[in-house]
Amino acid sequence: MIRQAGTSSVARASDRRPETGEEESLAGKLFPGSGEMAGLIRTKDWSKTALGAVERWPRSLATAVSICLGSRHPIVLWWGPDRLMFYNDGYRPMLGDSKHPQFLGGSGKECWAEIWDVIGPMMEQVIETGEATWSEDLPLLMRRHGYLEETYFTFSYSPIRDEAGCPNGVFNACTESTARVLSERRMKVLREMVIDARTEDEAARRCAEVLGRNARDVPFALIYLRDRSDDSFRPAGYAGIPRDMRVSLEGVAGGSADAHGWPLEKVVAGGEPVLLGGLAERFAELPDEPWDEAPKEAMLLPVGGSGAEGVAGILVLAISPRRTFDRAYREFFELLARQVSTALSTARAYEMERDRAERLADVDRAKTAFFNNVSHELRTPLTLILGPVEAAVTSVPPTLQGPDLDVVHRSSMRLLRLVNDLLDFSRVEAGRLSANLQPTDLALLTAALAGAFQSTVASGGLKLIVDCPPLSRPVWVDPTHWEKVVLNLVSNAFKFTFEGEISVRLREKGNTVELTVSDTGVGIPPEEQPKVFERFHRVEGTRGRSFEGTGIGLALVAEIAKQHGGTVRLESAVGRGSRFLVEVPIGGATAAEGGSSAASVAAIDRGRVAAYVSEASRWNGSAAVAVPAARRERSSEDVGPISAKEQGTPRILLAEDNADMREYIVRLLAGSWTIDAVADGQAALEAVRQDPPDLVLSDVMMPRLNGVGLLRALRKDPKTSTIPLILLSARAGEEAVISGLDTGADDYLVKPFSAPELLSRVRTHLELARARRAWTREMERMNKELEAFGYSVSHDLRAPLRTIDGFSQALLRTNASRIDEQGRHYLERICAGTTRMSALIDGLLGLSRITRTPLRREQVDLSGIALEVADELRRRDPARAVVFDVSSGLTACGDRQLIRIVLDNLLGNAWKFTSKRAEARIWVGSEPTPEGVAFFVRDNGAGFDMSYADRLFTPFQRLHKESDFEGTGIGLATVQRIISGHGGRLAAIGEVELGAKFIFTLGGIR
Q1: Which of 734, 732, 714 is nearest to 724 (CA)?
Q2: Which residues on adjacent β-strands are paired with residue 748?
Q3: Residues with Cβ < 8 Å from 755, sequence gap 6 or more?
Q4: How far is 802 from 674, CA to CA, in rounded Å?
Q5: Which residues contact 540 (CB under 8 A, 6 or more apart)?
Q6: pLDDT score, position 556
Q7: CB-count burial class (<10 Å; 0-12, 13-18, 19+) for 896
Q8: Strands across the sheet with 986-991, in order?
Q9: 3-state secondary structure of 569
């Protein structure tokens, strides 16, 4: 029952129950007005409720209800322990269709059972404290229209006091802010959907990320992109979908309306959004975040354009189960689709611009490649022409004969061929290459052209098969163009074939004829095959007889085939060879019209054929090492290239793929020095490693390994890093020279160069190398003398140091009682100093002894030694609990005693620098590196700053205070000396307070 505090004026009106008419008259006075709620309250029979008749209501309640009904602001009153509800016309819509009018005067707890756990305690607080509350945009899940609805309210709870002054009710003025909250939230998402992406996939992914941050409006989303090649759709963006659910939600490619997928086809066909219900029936599982209930509906919207042709993608948006899909919600989805469309359009525009830039870059790269290739090709014969001609002009009398005359002639022919090829290709580029078709005995012409290579191919150790049987009729071709097709394909096959055979076959196939040039050469990698007919393209790193070529030969073949209405294609496998197939139509002529076919064969350009064959013949023997100058035998007393070159004629290694250039340079240098010549960088690298020369002279552009690659390989190896190297290149200009020198070359000579210039530079660098070697020997001698002095001094210092230490210890033991505290302190400092000095001397003697002791190699168990060292460290300091993690099976070939010193120092270091760690850990293991297996010792100790890494292995260098970590600063220098002596490498990686890692390799690792 409702507590009646005091006697209200309403109750004093009568002690008896009034007649019905009187009650209505009293309610009419208390609750006037024409509103719906005033009328309901006036007409309701309150005598049948827990409150009783209106005249028995407490004055405070009647007054509050009267104020509530008289306000246009939404107000609800909660009265008594049961929180009986009274509300006005403004509050009435907030109840929806299922809570009115039955809960007028009824239990608020029953009415709002779904939110009572939130608002109930708030009312209790108001009743208990008598103080009002304020809530702004409080989210509440209310059941007003038959489903749990996401709503937001701003309201206050104020106490209603009864006649005794005690809070007995709650006055609730409230405003529903749902529309505003949703609008602000959705506008924020739309602003964030302004995406500046570089690709459509990135745009889809980033749009999905934004949608994923607004799961309340979009529980999940998918963005499908259209593949223009086959009109299929692929998912490119996900929001709110766990990975394990993505497959079931992706639907069927191609936009099928399958029952288990999305009806993408319907969206594309209509170009309009599609509202899709029954998601639970379509999919086995659906995400239920954030409402703990899976969506029942989704909308599919086209994006990226209008109409079926313009649809670039489809946006799938799940509809929240906590909101009605009203007009505002639908408009929000449509705006999202526009934002996604804009993002995709921006990305497409960027991609188009990028593609355009890439095409322009391709053109620029092609031009660069063209000029590089042509520059190299033109400068080489120019050097071979200018050099002998200059020498002939300065000779008395001026003559040009013998090998020099042959070189000049061959180079002139090569220049002519290059110029002709360039003119042909310029016609191709300008679209002016026209074919002068005439009936031709193509079998006879092809056989004659291919047969010209017979002796050259045979001298290269290969077999040439020419299989061109007579055709049934002449073929309409341009004979001069066909020459270029056959000559390019056969010379190309010879360049890249080292054993086996080359075959040239011609076959009639209906109304076409097919030329097949196949070889058993190196083959072409699959990724390079689509590019072989591109202008200026050359396959880098492929083994060949020469690196020469402009990169336009195969492109010219493809263009000629196209001019004849034919095609060219390639079949190739790496290591098995290549086959080029050129197919052209026979043409409309009959066999009787072929009278001029013989004349076309007779009109073969013998000069062009001779140029191709002559150039190919110069590729023979390119893999062999030529030794045109006699070399002296090296004595058994020669320790290395230094003493050998001091006693005899300096030796130069030349790497040049052009045979004429190679022989020309050899003739220039052979009068003064011993010359070895090879045809590519790989052969040069092998020759240097086998017997290092005094100087390397290398062309830049070569097969297998180019000059820059050779230079880097030599500089990387300590045994060859100091050999002077001069690069020869066709790339002129200051930028090219600086680039060449930046790679580590000692000099850079641009073709065409004069003979005196080459001789002068070679002589200069040989002299510099000789002086450098002499200085190195002197420094080594002085270093050995210094080490011997240090060893002698360190050894002699031991005796007086023992005397100082012994007497100091004796004073402390026997006279401690007679020495005051300050005196004992001084003696302890002397003892500590002698101990440190003794350790320093032992370290110096050990370092010197390592240099003086010969290296003994044997199989060494590194794991076993590491465990022994770990046990010894534990015995020295049993109080420390350090975890050692030593990999098993670590073995190497080296000096066991010296390797023990390495692990003693590295593990001792790790032990020392983990002393302040509560959980110290030390690892010993191995890891693969480009140079082979490396071993490491790692700890989680004090670490070091990597900017000081270079100082770690220098004697007496310390990165920490002695008061923090004791030490002499010699240990790591000793380790460096031992590792270097084994031909290995030592490196360190560290980070302050995160530990250090020392990595080392050893020669002869197993």
Answers
A1: 714
A2: 727
A3: 387, 390, 391, 668
A4: 61
A5: none
A6: 84
A7: middle
A8: 883-886, 921-929, 932-939, 995-1000, 986-991
A9: strand
d(CA 642, CA 328): 88
Give the model's pLDDT for residue 85.
93
Residue pair 777/642 in contact (Cβ under 8 Å)? The answer is yes
On the question of pLDDT at 599 being above 60, the answer is: no
**Cα 765 to chain center, whole Å?**
42
Long-range pairs for 40-43: beta carbons < 8 A, 24 or more residues apart: 40/101, 40/104, 41/65, 41/69, 41/86, 41/104
Cβ partners under 8 Å of residue 801, min gap 6? 834, 837, 838, 841
212-224: average pLDDT: 93
Find the largest Cα–Cα distance for the chain. Answer: 155
d(CA 238, CA 346): 20
Tokens, residue 658:
């052009």
Cβ pair 200, 225 in contact under 8 A: yes
- SS3 of residue 252 by DSSP: coil
Distance from C-alpha of 70 to C-alpha of 783, rounded to nearest angstrom: 108
Element (H, E) at 11: helix 9-12
The pLDDT of residue 893 is: 87
pLDDT (average), residues 443-466: 89
Supply the DSSP string of 828-839, one letter for each residue. Answer: HHHHHHHHHHHH
Domains of the chain: 9-176 (3.30.450.20), 182-356 (3.30.450.40), 411-617 (3.30.565.10), 641-753 (3.40.50.2300), 778-852 (1.10.287), 854-1000 (3.30.565.10)
Instruction: Look up residue 378 and give its amino acid.
Output: L
287 residue type, one letter: P
Tell me the three-class secondary structure of 922-978, residue by residue: EEEEEEEECCEEEEEEEECCCCCCHHHHHHCCCCCCCCCCCCCCCCCCCHHHHHHHH
Confidence of residue 924 (pLDDT cuts 50, 70, 90): very high
> How far is Cα of residue 263 from the mean position of the Cα atoms in its chain?
37
Backbone angles phi, psi at 964, to 5 degrees: -85, -50
* Nearest Cα residue to 196 out of 71, 308, 344: 344
DSSP assignments along 53-104, one per residue: -GGGS-HHHHHHHHHHHH-SS-EEEEETTTTEEEE-TTTGGGGTTTSTTTTT
With H, G, I as helix, E, B as strand and everything else as coil, classify residue 983: coil
Worst-scoring range by mean pLDDT, 25-34, 362-371, 444-453, 824-833? 362-371
947 exposure class (CB count in 10 Å sphere: 0-12, 13-18, 19+): exposed
The 10 Å Cβ neighbour count of residue 439 is 23
Q: What is the pLDDT of residues 952-996, one digit of tens each?
A: 777 645 555 554 445 445 678 888 888 888 888 888 888 888 899
In the block, which residue shows the tokens 């000049």?
408
Rounded distance, CA 239 to CA 826, Å? 75
DSSP string across 975-999: HHHHHHHTT--EEEEEETTTEEEEE
Q: Read off the DSSP letter of residue 227.
A: E
- Contact (CB, 8 A) for 901 and 981: no
The model's confidence at residue 397, banded by pLDDT at 50, 70 and 90, is low
Whether the pLDDT of residue 393 is over 70: the answer is: no
- The whole-model pTM stands at 0.44
- What radius of gyration do the chain's Cα atoms show? 48
The set of residues, in sequence order, having a beta carbon less than 8 Å from that of 23 and lying 6+ positions away, is 47, 53, 54, 55
- Residue 259: phi and psi, rounded to 5, are -65, -20
Q: Is 849 left (phi over 0), alpha (psi -120 to 50) or beta?
A: alpha
Element (H, E) at 139: strand 133-143
Q: Which of 267-281, 700-714, 831-845, 985-999 has the lowest mean pLDDT?
A: 831-845
Contact of 172 with 142, CB cutoff 8 Å: no
**Segment among 81-95, 263-277, 775-789 with least mean pLDDT:** 775-789
- Report the helix count and the strand count for the chain, using DSSP H and E: 30, 29
Both tokens of 922, joined, read 């030390």
Which of 79-83, 535-539, 872-876 is most confident? 79-83
Whether residue 615 contacts residue 491, with contact meaning beta carbons closer than 8 Å, is answered with: yes
